[in-house]
Design brief:
By secondary structure, the protein is an alpha+beta fold. The protein has three domains: 100 residues, Uridine Diphospho-n-acetylenolpyruvylglucosamine Reductase, domain 2; 130 residues, 2-Layer Sandwich (Uridine Diphospho-n-acetylenolpyruvylglucosamine Reductase, domain 3); 99 residues, Alpha-Beta Plaits, CATH 3.30.70. It contains twelve helices and 16 strands. The chain has a five-stranded antiparallel β-sheet with strand order 5-6-10-8-9. Helix 1 packs antiparallel against helix 4 and helix 9 runs antiparallel to helix 12. The longest helix is centred in the last third of the chain and has 17 residues.
Length: 354
């Protein structure tokens, strides 16, 4: 059965917005965009008797806009012709997939700019296709850090802040993505643009705050876990930045995976075998009461082995770590010796009580 395509006149209207080189309705491209990691789980949840296919519904076309204005025009045109939209940033996971073949995918990879870094006021403004790694490289030049969601450094900070949950390994220090979101530029489902927070001010609009004046709309925008592009398209977002907890003047040599890394001053890693999950819970709660950790996370014993390995051979040398029953990995870091001494004493106190 041939895949459903856009009518030629509608296709041309979309091409007039993004340019002919930034729209495609060929079968290979559309079917590639219909594939995603873990899509078979969603398909099984929808129809338990069906095949475990890794493909979603196939969209009618894929468009690559480059500006908020182009996104706005596309959304209005989709409303005119009653076509559904699914927006993708870096595109990780089945929640990026269309739920109907009467749809188009907006691949936002051309919107990949770091718009602003305000080192003094500790925030930055990013577009959808900026990755966590891309952002971190730039802000570390200012001695700063950002929250990195558990999805990893290739994921989009914008998508995590506006449309997902967003916990990560450094959450004890950097919080959750949703709590780091400030002002937002949002193309609503009808194509109108809404600017949340301080960006919506009539006089001197800027990105530094996510609320007011007036009622906050952040909860409506994302709720607890985000709408996964179900409420329009987010084209820019400001997120909080944090002082990097130690020096960013890293000394790295060698080639991947055999890096030689000089550990910065004032950083320490603790690996604690809590023996069982009840004691693991108690340890995490007690350590987090001190509010000194950069990372405080349970990892599997195999993951702990992998942290200290860069090959299969060196992994097997760490086999003793595989016997850990409930490993808790804690990192503390500081910018001064005084701060580091305090954090070590706080950790010693917590560990003595466990």
């Amino acid at each position: 059965m041939p895949l459903e395509k856009l009518e030629k006149t509608i296709y041309q209207e979309f091409a007039n917005i993004v340019g002919t080189e930034n729209i495609d309705d060929s079968a290979p491209v559309r079917e590639v965009y219909a594939y995603n990691w873990c899509q078979e789980i969603f398909n099984y949840m929808h129809d338990k008797s069906g095949p475990l296919s890794p493909f979603s519904d196939v969209p009618k076309a894929v468009l690559l806009p480059s500006t908020t204005e182009e996104v706005q025009q596309i959304v209005k045109l989709c409303n005119k012709y009653k076509i559904m939209i699914k927006a993708q940033s870096t595109g990780l996971g089945p929640w990026n997939q269309p739920s109907s073949s009467n749809s188009i995918i907006l691949d936002l990879r051309r919107m990949n700019h770091i718009v602003k870094i305000d080192a003094k006021n500790l925030y930055c403004v990013v577009e959808p296709y900026v990755s966590g790694a891309q952002l971190q490289v730039e802000i570390m030049k200012h001695g700063l850090n950002c929250h990195m969601p558990g999805a990893g450094p290739m994921a989009s900070p914008l998508a995590s802040a506006t449309s997902m949950n967003g916990p990560g390994f450094t959450s004890p220090h950097t919080g959750h993505s949703s709590r780091n979101m400030l002002a937002v530029e949002w193309v609503l489902p009808d194509g109108e643009i809404l600017r949340l927070g301080s960006l919506g001010q009539k006089n001197n609009p800027d990105w530094f705050h996510g609320d007011g004046p007036g009622p906050s709309l952040r909860g409506i925008m994302r709720g607890w876990a985000g709408a996964k592009s179900g409420l329009g398209v987010f084209t820019k977002v400001a997120v909080k930045l944090f002082p990097y907890p130690c020096s960013t003047d890293f000394k790295v040599s060698g080639c991947s995976p055999n890096y030689d890394f000089e550990i910065p001053d004032f950083i320490r890693v603790y690996i604690i075998d809590c023996k069982n999950f009840k004691k693991l819970e108690e340890a995490m709660l007690r350590i987090e009461e001190e509010e000194v950790s950069f990372m405080c996370s349970y990892l599997s014993a195999f993951a702990v082995m992998a942290i200290f390995s860069n090959s299969i051979e060196t992994l097997m040398d760490k086999i003793a770590l595989g016997n850990l029953k409930a490993p808790l990995v804690v990192i503390i870091a500081a910018r001064t010796e005084r701060e580091f001494d305090y954090k070590q004493k706080a950790m010693d106190l917590a560990l003595d009580e466990l």
